[in-house]
Write a structure and sequence with these properties.
Helix content is 67%, strand content 2%. It is built from 17 helices and 4 strands.
Length: 455
């Protein structure tokens, strides 16, 4: 009896401790997010009032590159990736200087028109502040990691106005196929408090103001959503592979960062003159237009992928989830246009499915669909998100994610390693559908070879 009381007392103290700490994290990150987003809004309003503000792109990318390289290299890229890396490799230890550097360089990138998002900087700023808090109260490595994960959750929830999806994102994004249940309570508390803080300060969330998306009750919609999941998975795969190709190119040839920034800025200027300014910055107006069912050029998602990859590979600082939303919503519109389906519904499904596929976060994506578009969207968003998640294979827009399960029993991968270290190998199992198809393919190949020996 005494042992049971001791156990319950310890658990109660632990719950109280993490509830209190998570509330503090939510409050700190919520205020920091509000300040950052208001500064971002001010800078964008200042520059976008000039018609050719995007001509400053080379200068902005150079400035971002130089500041990050000389002051805080950890602030490079799209934010969340560096936080994931810090959690897995440094127990969540993030240098305090990352916070102001990330804030400043992201504002510069946005001001000149760089195609980036705002969630990555908020996650990195939140993680940086919580890492400093953990050092202040002398936390060990395990507790520091928990606190930093709460910072990610609060940052995501505060930016998009989705407290539950934000909380789940923080614990789902670290592992592919695994979730850290020991951080579930503080992540939920931090996400909800962060959301409440920014809301009370007057911040509005563009996607949640749309209201519930009307979903037509047809028997075939589930199948259409499932097929859409394949399409959105391929779009996610294209984004990941193009990002990897761009980053690999820069590493392989060791281009001077300043020259890369200038080249990237010039490329974006040329593309902007050809295709318009619609693909610069956040592009939230295009996301909203897609969700309202308006006509969007069918190749818009491809252009956004190209603009985003060039910006991030060439020294831009910012997140990648908002561009993912843009790509997903416009890809959904393209899918619906090609098949004559409801554009608004599939823009919404595409928005969350791209997040599931590119970031390996199907649970977050499904919850987000419910929070933004209503419960009636849940089954269709869920099936599309899970299929998109599986379609990307063992890849991710966050290469520091750790693989916790195999997406197919026919593929050999080493679990417990980071995605960037994974080399998948096809493993042919006997008496399975895959084995039968393989045998049929080999037989056909052999017969064709006999009939046409010279090709």
């Amino acid at each position: 009896m005494r042992k049971r009381l001791a156990e319950e007392t310890v658990i109660f103290i632990s719950v109280f401790k993490w509830f209190f700490l998570a509330m503090c994290v939510g409050g700190i990150v919520g205020v920091a997010t509000y300040v950052f987003l208001k500064a971002l809004e001010w800078s964008v309003d200042l520059t976008s009032s000039h018609s050719y503000y995007f001509l400053l792109l080379p200068l902005g990318l150079i400035a971002s590159t130089i500041i990050i390289d000389h002051i805080a290299p950890d602030a490079k890229g799209h934010g969340t990736e560096k936080v994931i890396e810090a959690i897995h490799k440094a127990s969540g230890k993030i240098r305090p200087r990352v916070v102001p550097v990330k804030l400043f360089t992201t504002i510069i990138t946005f001001a000149v028109g760089g195609s980036v998002g705002k969630e990555g900087p908020c996650a990195q700023i939140g993680a940086g502040l919580t890492s400093a808090l953990a050092d202040l109260i002398r936390f060990n490595d395990i507790d520091r990691k928990k606190l930093v994960i709460c910072g990610i959750s609060a940052g995501f929830a505060s930016v998009f106005g989705t407290p539950i999806a934000g909380a789940v994102f923080g614990i789902e994004v670290l592992f592919v196929g695994g979730m850290m249940y020991d951080v579930l309570l503080p992540s939920f508390v931090a996400g909800i408090v962060g959301y409440q803080v920014v809301s009370s300060l007057g911040l509005t969330f563009p996607y949640t103001t749309l209201g519930i998306v009307s979903v037509p009750q047809t028997n075939i919609l589930f199948i259409e959503a499932a097929v859409g999941g394949i399409f959105f998975g391929l779009c996610s795969l294209f984004l990941i592979e193009l990002m990897n190709f761009g980053e690999g190119l820069v590493k392989k040839y060791r281009f001077n960062p300043a020259y890369t920034a200038v080249a990237g800025g010039i490329a974006l200027i040329i593309l902007t003159f050809i295709f318009s300014t619609e693909y610069l910055g956040l592009g939230e107006h295009m996301i909203l237009a897609s969700l309202r069912g308006e006509d969007i050029v069918i190749y818009a998602f491809v252009l956004k992928i190209i603009f985003t990859v060039i910006t991030l590979v060439c020294g831009g600082s910012g997140g990648i989830v908002t561009p993912i939303f843009f790509i997903g919503a416009t890809a959904g519109t393209a899918y619906a246009t090609m098949l004559g389906l409801n554009k608004s519904v599939f823009a919404a499904i595409g928005l969350v499915s791209l997040l599931a596929g590119a970031a390996n976060t199907p649970i977050t994506a499904t919850i987000m669909a419910v929070e933004i578009f209503g419960a009636q969207m849940a089954p269709y968003a869920a099936i599309s998100s899970v299929i998109s998640f599986l379609m990307t294979g063992h890849r991710s827009i966050y290469p520091s994610q750790v693989l916790a399960f195999k997406k197919s029993a026919s593929i050999d991968v080493e679990l417990g390693k980071e995605i960037e270290e994974i080399i998948p190998q096809f493993h042919k199992r006997k008496r399975t559908l895959m084995d039968i198809l393989w045998r049929i393919g080999e037989t056909l190949k052999e017969k064709i070879g006999k009939h046409y020996p010279h090709g």
